[in-house]
Amino acid sequence: MLKTTAGFPMMHVPFNGSSPSLTALMGGQVQLAVDTVVASTPLIKSGKIKAIAALSPQRLALLPNVPTVAESGYPGFDMGSWFAFVGPAGLPAPVQKKLEKALAETLASTEFKKKMVDIGLTPLGGNGDALRARIERELPLMRAVAARADIRVD
User: Fold this and answer.
1) CA distance 45 to 50
2) Is the pLDDT of residue 2 over 70?
3) Using CA atoms, how far apart are residues 40 and 55, in angstroms rounded to an integer?
């Protein structure tokens, strides 16, 4: 997305996870890496790598001095990662509602929120309908990015 949005001349180098990617960055085999805040923050705080920009729409609580890509000259840029609780397609509605309620209670907990922020995550909450709407909104955008970048599944 950075390549197509900002016109950065870069090549995607696939790695099998954060450890090899960040090791290659520290070793000078690659000049840039896009990785999770959870994996990269210890290396950023130790000075082994430098944070350039956050891909999320807001600055990260764990790295408040790191600007976002949007703040760095690309308004509207949002490639922040997110996680969701999902269940099987045939999950009965009463079970889904019970799970949504339990998750909402957990997400409302100050202790849980603090633990999430401490590892670099921002708990947002929501329900199945909100998740479905987000996926329906983001999927066409990601398909367009893949088409512009000529990304194909082999």
Assistant:
1) 9
2) no
3) 13
Extract the tokens encoding 26: 């520290």
Tell me the backbone φ, ψ of residue 54, rounded to 5 degrees: -90, 140
> How many Å apart are CA 65 and CA 84, to the nearest integer?
27
Q: Which residue has the tokens 């890496």?
A: 33
pTM of the model: 0.75
- The residue segments making up the domain with residue 119 are 82-154
Distances (CA, A) of 66 to 4, 86, 147: 22, 31, 30
DSSP code at position 58: S
Most confident of 41-45, 118-122, 127-131: 41-45
Q: Which of 24, 58, 81 is the last residue of a domain?
A: 81
Domain termination residue (choose one: 81, 97, 115): 81
How many domains are there within the chain? 2
Instruction: Give every CB contact of residue 110 below 8 A, 6+ residues apart in sequence.
Output: none
Q: What is the distance between the alpha carbons of residues 10 and 81, in angstroms, rounded to a whole number?
A: 21
